[in-house]
Amino acid sequence: MNRRIPSLAVVALFALGFMPRPAELLLEPVPGWPPRLPSGWKMSGASWVAADHRGRVYLAQRDGHPLLRFDENGKFLAEVGAQELQPSVYYDLRKTPPVPMQRRWWVHGLHIDPWDNVWVTDVGRHTVMKFSPEGKLLLTLGTPDKSGESDRLFNQPTNVWVAPSGQVYVTDGYGNSRVAKFASDGTFIKSWGKPGTGPGEFHTPHAVTLDAKGNVYVTDRENNRIQVFDPDGRFLTLWPDLHSVDAIFIRNGVMYAGAGLDNKILKLDLSGKLLGSWGPPGGIQYPHGLCADTKGNLYVAEGGHATKFRIRSQ
């Protein structure tokens, strides 16, 4: 894997005091998280977390109950998509030929849209599903159990985000190297991206989010950067030297990012400037998915479970 680290020149400038070090981002664990599940249920491979406008929190995980709803205090409320989300065999595409993994629930990305609909990507079945706030399946993008690269086929889609207009952006990122855009009714509009290291090219587009202007931010994970596009996919800029960024979320003009292999949470402004980071020894384990709520809390899917933190520095 092509994983870069900051240049020695930048490290030297920090050490000599010519460049200010980013402030520490202070995160305080909130009691009650990770939440308890009903008796006999397990939590395994928590991949993403999202909060709705009612204060409810959703967790995608890979045991027999793959999409769970909690209140903000960690009380279990309901399971979502129990009939529609099915186990499958996921393939590790980093190997040649691809290596089949165990049969289980391979939910991955998770997003709550402006109307509190719940969107989840399934990398094993190559689909994106939309559920109502009550848990009814409303829409499926992709063709279940078929992979490809077209208006109707994904290859292990990693994440999804919905704009206030209702338009849908999907990072089709493990098997393909593109962002796919759809109308609110699921009609395919366009896609952009191909394998590579240049602007608009990707090596594992892993997470996607939008800012208030509708600009599209994509973690280009194996290229160790974030790329920024306008709503129609025109390249705007890229932020280099961001190692192992799995997840991003924007709240009030600030981006929070999960740097998985580094076991850190990053705080950046929307020009890409690092404002702070948090990752004390033993403090977090591979933050793969995250979200912030309106009350100054950060939820992180990490280490196989979900943790809630209170953000101490803004």
Give structural notes.
- It is a single chain.
- This protein has a single domain (8-311), classed as 6 Propeller (Neuraminidase), CATH 2.120.10.
- The protein is built from one helix and 27 strands.
- The chain has one helix spanning 8-16; strands spanning 23-24, 27-29, 48-51, 57-60, 67-70, 76-79, 88-92, 99-104, 107-112, 118-122, 127-131, 137-141, 159-162, 168-172, 178-182, 188-192, 205-210, 216-220, 225-229, 235-239, 245-251, 254-259, 264-269, 274-278, 287-292, 297-302, 305-311.
- The strands form seven sheets. Strands 1-24-23-22-21 form a five-stranded mixed beta sheet, with no helix packed on it.
- The longest helix is centred in the N-terminal third of the chain and has 9 residues, at 8-16.
Concise synopsis of the structure shown:
The protein has 314 residues and is an all-beta fold. The chain has one helix spanning 8-16, and strands at residues 23-24, 27-29, 48-51, 57-60, 67-70, 76-79, 88-92, 99-104, 107-112, 118-122, 127-131, 137-141, 159-162, 168-172, 178-182, 188-192, 205-210, 216-220, 225-229, 235-239, 245-251, 254-259, 264-269, 274-278, 287-292, 297-302, 305-311.
